């Protein structure tokens, strides 16, 4: 393979989130995950819940020093709403939490790690879910703005990259469509309304950030799954288009272009599923487009036209128009069950370039989950994850090609740094450059960690 090189100021980072890494120390309020785990532990892999983490709350300095050792220069994590805010209605800050995030951010900066702070990684405060139905409620939008304003005020002098939401569609799909996230409600109307309120909340905090005259940038992280239709047959192509509208464009278009794709709105109206909005919201959405986009990419979305029509009396879902297509002989990550298709990263990059005005963007997550990774430990207790090195190299190869062709990508963030807890999958799939011993939270750099250290140092990823 030819030598792959990246721009000099490229951000080489990893990504994680507060609820998946911090642990419970000094955390005063529950998120939906904390509550749900207490209520239904059997829904979580091996019944391991969100209190079992790498204990970043106490071990953040150790992590930052390993990041530095590995030559990484950026890290994306999230500030937990349910940790930072003591009283959700007034927006009163918990001082202990503020001090923790101050220490954490300062440690990163002192060690040359650019902090990218996200404000929502699926972690709705339980109280707001229970009282108001989370983002189905417009009141919760106002409360989220208070939280974001508090975070900007506390950390905006040092944090230069802000992210309003991580993968909003993964969250709303899980909560209101696919029964994967509490409150496990199956309602398209709720899916559509919560997505709309998240978009509104996003636009309002972009506006608040700009009014505050901070010197950084603000964006959103989406999982822009490239829809790949089974064939060029018009029915399959149309299936791909509908999936694209409901999974990708629902955020990509209004966040970057300032408005929804009209076809999306037409389908909602046709099925009597339109969200409630105020006319002045549309102005806020139009005016507050993002400075950059973060894109999470793991696998493509292969779709086909439905083989049979759904029961016309069943409630509407976008899957009336398409269904997943399991292409024979796809290349699979046999350890996680997800498809491996690195070229999609190039397709995404070129789509951003050609269809979204070449807006500044970065890879906010990409990575390889491995179930039972312990089996790759050598006799010295060191994980030899050559499969992960190959995975990263292939994706970087396609990314470099896109950058070479003019795509405006400014960074690559691997999921994740230290193996972290992952929602209902807990520790089933390990993703880290650094492994975590769950008994004593000890960290050990994997082979991929040492590989990336050398690759970044030499700017050579071949
Ligand atoms: C991403 C999420 O989509 O997938 C992360 O942003 C999550 O929060 C990651 O941990 C991996 O998920 P899983 O289910 O393979 O552990």
TrEMBL record:
UniProt xrefs under SUPFAM superfamilies: (Trans)glycosidases
Keyword Hydrolase: yes
MF (Gene Ontology): beta-glucosidase activity
Entry keyword Hydrolase: yes
GO cellular component, one term: cytosol
Annotated keywords: Glycosidase, Hydrolase
Gene3D superfamilies per record: Glycosidases
Any Pfam family hit: Glyco_hydro_1
Protein's GO biological process: carbohydrate catabolic process
Family of this protein: Belongs to the glycosyl hydrolase 1 family.
Protein name: Glycoside hydrolase family 1 protein
Taxonomic classification: Bacteria, Bacillati, Bacillota, Bacilli, Bacillales
């Amino acid at each position: 393979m030819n030598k792959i090189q990246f721009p000099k100021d490229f951000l080489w980072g990893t990504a994680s989130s507060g609820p998946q890494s911090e642990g419970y120390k000094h955390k005063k309020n529950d998120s939906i995950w904390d509550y749900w785990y207490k209520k239904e532990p059997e829904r979580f892999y091996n019944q391991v819940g969100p209190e079992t983490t790498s204990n970043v709350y106490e071990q953040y300095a150790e992590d930052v020093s390993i990041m530095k050792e590995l030559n990484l220069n950026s890290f994306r994590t999230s500030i937990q709403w349910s940790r930072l805010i003591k009283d959700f209605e007034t927006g009163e800050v918990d001082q202990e939490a503020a001090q923790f995030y101050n220490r954490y951010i300062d440690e990163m900066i002192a060690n040359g790690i650019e902090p990218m702070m996200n404000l929502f990684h699926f972690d709705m405060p339980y109280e707001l879910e229970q009282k108001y139905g989370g983002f189905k409620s417009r009141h919760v939008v106002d409360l989220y703005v208070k939280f974001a304003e508090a975070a900007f005020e506390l950390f905006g002098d040092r944090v230069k990259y802000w992210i309003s939401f991580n993968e909003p569609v993964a969250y709303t799909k899980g909560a209101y469509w696919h029964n994967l996230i509490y409150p496990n409600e199956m309602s398209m109307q709720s899916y559509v309304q919560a997505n709309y309120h998240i978009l509104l909340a996003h636009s309002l905090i972009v506006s608040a950030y700009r009014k505050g005259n901070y010197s950084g940038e603000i964006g959103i992280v989406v999982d822009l799954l490239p829809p790949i239709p089974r064939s060029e047959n018009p029915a399959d192509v149309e299936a791909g288009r509908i999936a694209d509208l409901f999974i990708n464009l629902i955020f990509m278009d209004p966040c970057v272009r300032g408005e929804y794709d009209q076809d999306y709105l037409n389908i909602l109206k046709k099925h009597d599923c339109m969200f409630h909005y105020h006319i002045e919201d549309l102005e806020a959405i139009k005016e507050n487009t993002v400075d950059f986009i973060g894109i999470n990419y793991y696998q493509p979305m292969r779709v086909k036209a439905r083989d049979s029509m759904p029961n016309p009396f069943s409630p509407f879902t976008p899957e009336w128009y398409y269904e997943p297509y399991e292409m024979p002989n796809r290349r699979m990550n046999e350890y996680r069950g997800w498809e491996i298709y690195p070229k999609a990263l190039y397709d995404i990059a070129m789509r951003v370039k050609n269809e979204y005005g070449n807006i500044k963007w970065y890879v906010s997550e990409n990575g390889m989950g491995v179930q039972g990774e312990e089996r790759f430990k050598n006799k010295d207790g060191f994980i030899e994850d050559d499969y992960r090195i190959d995975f990263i190299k292939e994706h970087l190869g396609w990314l470099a090609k896109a950058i070479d062709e003019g795509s405006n990508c400014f960074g690559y963030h691997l999921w994740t740094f230290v193996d972290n807890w992952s929602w209902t999958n807990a520790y089933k799939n390990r993703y880290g450059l650094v492994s975590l011993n769950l008994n004593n939270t000890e960290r050990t750099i994997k082979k991929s960690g040492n590989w990336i250290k050398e690759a970044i140092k030499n700017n050579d990823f071949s």
